[in-house]
Amino acid sequence: MNPIKLALTYLRIGVLNEMQYRINFFIQLLQSFISVATGLIGLSLVFGQVKTLAGWSRPELLAVMGVHLLMGGVIRSIIQPNMERLMDDVRNGTLDFALTKPADAQILVSVREFRFWQLVDVIVGIVVISIAFIQLNGTLGILQIFGFLSALIMGGIMLYSVWLMVTSISFWVIRVQEISNLFEGLYAAGRWPVGIYPSWLRTGLTFLVPVAFAVTIPAEALTNRLTGTSLLIALGMTLLFVVLSRGLWRLGLSNYSGASS
Amino acid sequence: MRRYIDFYLATMRISILEQIQYSVANYFYMIGMITEPVIYLVVWTTIARQQGGTTGGYTVGAFAAYYIIWTLVRNMNIVFTPFGWEWRIREGQLSMMLMRPIHPIHSDVAFFAGWKFVVILLWLPLAAILSWIFKPTFDIRWMEVIVFSLAIWGAYLIRTMLLSLLGMITFWTTRVSAIFELYFGLELILSGRLVPMTLMPVWIQNLSNYLPFKWTFFFPIEALVGNLTDVQLWSGFGMQLLWIATGIFLLNIIWNFAIKQYSAVGG
Fold it and tell me: Alpha carbon A192 to chain centroid distance?
């Protein structure tokens, strides 16, 4: 079966499932507003003191916040639910049901869950980005749109790969819930451009948990800071992460002993 | 009274023994939690440096001290969550607890209180590492240490009351996650968790005086790292006691109404 068709089928099932609980849309909307409001209060506290933070102006940091929100929505709607289900499956031995299906197991475990309403965060993120963009009086050239979208997609793929690698550890170590907490904590650091962090933390946020690529670089594309070089580095890193995560996944899978063991 | 003391001591001992066994998991959890204050710390020290070393009366070293003590106070603030209450009520787990001859809240208070001793022990090396990285400046008097060691327990009890009250909303409706998020958002702003309250706009500071939140975060931290007078220290602790008493009072009243609503939705 064509993997794209497979993913779309699961997507449709996910949407249909979630459509039964429409009130969750409003609950999600309220939650998104709360996180935007606290984010805005944080920004206004910072800019009550200074005009720029490490060279970033207020609308520029608003753009960073928008991208962070958008990417967070992607993580919570697609990446995290699938990976958490995978962790549960490995622990309970129910991964058997996925492995015996005639499709690539990695694709299958990556598309089974879809939290439709979490996409509200993606939309709210886009709104925040648009407001930031208007405040910046920016002009949107073709090159800029291309840079932003490709940085965003590559960032998403990298985050997915890191999640898959962390989840693959559960083939050896059963309790990985705490590691995923750690991941969430580190992702929160992306609310601010990684340039403000001390170098040891910046390195971690670039190469261990690629928050730099997922949030800061797309935001740089919007604020005319992106260079072709960093986009190329992002491409190289994306390929590296994809290959590494695929390798670790297969290694872990060969270590999997199935149910009732 | 005697049986309560026995119950508390036994539950705390069990919790200490249990949590010591999970020290690696506890550590991962604590490290994950530390990213939050480190983010705030980096942002505010960046601002302080840009402004020549001080912002709102806080030097770079004072910010470091604030957010390092923050990590201990945050750990003391971890209590049985309202999401746990939701689970308890929705799944009917509460039924079992109601069978016991002691109010269910006591086992929460005692269990988490025992856990705190493990947490404080595990926190010490983390605090040492954070201090080595961020170089906090402390100017501590012994009276501050005394009030601080009492105030972290005061904060623990206030937050236990608040989050239990919040969790008990589940008796009436099971769609509570948005309400909980709203609460946590307000708490973030009004407690001193995001920034020291003195950096907040004056109207938020005034508002926070009438609410319990700042006594669970800002006050305990400020008791140790700030320059409060003895009178301020002890009256702050008095405010904590007042909020604990208010919490117990409200909890009793609402519990009496709530328990009549209880029908174990699932289970």
Answer: 15
pLDDT in tens, B213-230: 999 999 999 999 988 999
Does residue B176 fall inside a structural domain?
yes
Establish if A258 belongs to a structural domain: no
A215 Cβ partners below 8 Å, 6+ apart? A64, A67, A68, A71, A155, A190
A45 touches chain B (CB under 8 A): yes
Across the interface, whether the CB atoms of B175 and A23 are under 8 A apart is answered yes
Q: Which domain does B173 fall in, by range?
A: 2-261
CB contact under 8 A, A45 and B200: yes
Q: How does pLDDT run across A161-182, given as a tens digit for each residue?
A: 999 998 888 888 766 677 777 7
Closest CA in chain B for residue A193: B43
Instruction: Yes or no: say if A81 and A249 are a contact pair by the CB < 8 Å rule.
Output: no
In a domain, B266, yes or no: no
The whole-model pTM stands at: 0.87
Helices and strands per DSSP (H, E), number in chain A: 13, 0
Those residues with Cβ within 8 angstroms of residue A42's Cβ, 6 or more apart along the chain or in another chain: A191, B194
- How do residues A124-150 score in pLDDT, each as one tens digit? 999 999 999 888 877 778 888 888 999
List the single residue in A27, A45, A175 with the smallest CB-CB distance to B178.
Answer: A27
Tally of domains within chain A? 1
Chain B positions in Cβ-Cβ contact with residue A39 (cut-off 8 Å): none
Question: What does A73-90 look like in DSSP terms, one character per residue?
Answer: HHIIIIIHHHHHHHHHHH
- Check: complex ipTM more than 0.85: no
Q: Kind and range of the H or E element at B55?
A: strand B54-55
In total, how many domains does chain B have?
1
Instruction: Give residue A188's domain range.
Output: 3-253
The verdict on residue B128 lying in a domain is yes
The pLDDT assigned to A259 comes to 56
